[in-house]
Amino acid sequence: MADAKQLVTDLFKSYGITIPAHRMQLFDRFLLEEQNLAILHQLRKKQEQLMANWKIEDRIAEIVQQPIRIPNATVGKPYTAPFDFEQYGWNDLIAFRIEDLEALGLTYSAENNQLTGVPTQSGDLKFSVYFKVEGQPEEAPFHQKDIPLIINPDPKGLWKNLESDKNDPYWKEDEATLFSPLGDRHLLVSSKRGRSHANVSSFREDDFAFKELPNGWNVVVVSDGAGSAKLSRKGSALACAGVVNYFLDPASVESMIEFDDLLQQHASQTGDDTQKNLNRFVYNNLGKAAFQVHKQLESFAKAQEVTLKDLSSTLIFTLFKKYDVGYALLSFGVGDCPIAVLNKDVTEVTLMNWIDVGEFGGGTRFITMPEIFQNEKFATRFGFKLLADFSYLIMMSDGIYDPKFVVEANLPNIAKWQEFLADLQGQNEDKATVELSTTNPDIEAQLSRWMDFWSSGNHDDRTLAIVF
Question: pTM to 2 decimals?
Fold first, then answer.
């Protein structure tokens, strides 16, 4: 009764009616009249309904205004993120539906409380949750809550692929991929312009060459033109061609015959200091090849009235020949491009060169540098190995080495080379597979596709040569 009396008193006051003391008994009798009691009952019910309605509206507003943060997604990249109603405190929803997810390439799983999918568009986007809360009648309309979602663009799509200038006198194809027999083996090689060059319509600076030589020898050459050198694309092409031409020269062909005798003495242990004699042979013959390349670059620079530095290029090359006792491999390297040979069952790796990092503070050395030939370490730039057999001879520029091996310390680790081969076999984000088989008709296209792998921060030219 006291609550009812206060309710009516407050109601009357809102209309400017105040009950004086001498009318209180009358007021009490007024409240007890049957018709007024019924009205009071209705007032209480309306009051309760009003409060309930307010709580519903307040709860709806609370949900609509509640900040929900969803992890950012990336176009084209598989996406999974929690979207848990219980975590958001939405246990009082009696009905809901989610719209606009499909347009983003996503779906919602109520069973797993997750958003999943592969986003198809980028931007500051949103999807909507339509819901009803406890207390609302079944026929009540749904309420809308927009959930913001940032979908970043595919970083690959931010790079332009602008054609290089075919009218340039030193122009070369932006990509070259070849598969060819080479001696008793096969060579798969690809050289591809990096994204950083394609983005500004500049040239492929890397290059390669290979050749079956007389007397059973074969040579593979890789050169990485320095991006800061304005004619390095020509420097790398000249360096590769220069090595091949050197070993095709009749005088060099004649000189290489001596190796047969030295190797026979070494294998049969019929001579003195056979290892030293072989090392001296490699130093003399491959050293002359490297020096001749240097001199050719020097002559070209003078003829074109450019600096030798404008032609700056690294240079690695390997000669191999099959003998009865196994394979002889001879190598030379200057710069940061590794040469590796994997044994038949891929359980050991033999590095055929050391790369110019670390000691020089990361500074690459080039075949154009005269000091290379005057340095006391010049003799250590040559390699000789006699192996019973091998599975792969692999040569690469730093455009492959940097993203796939990262640091020099990983190169002697056979596990890293096994990972590299697994990567080639399709264990990568793009599922790009290169089937290293001599009967694979798509091998060139497969390697070309694999060479487009994404590696954040690694957008240089890429060259990879595999003898198998």
Answer: 0.78
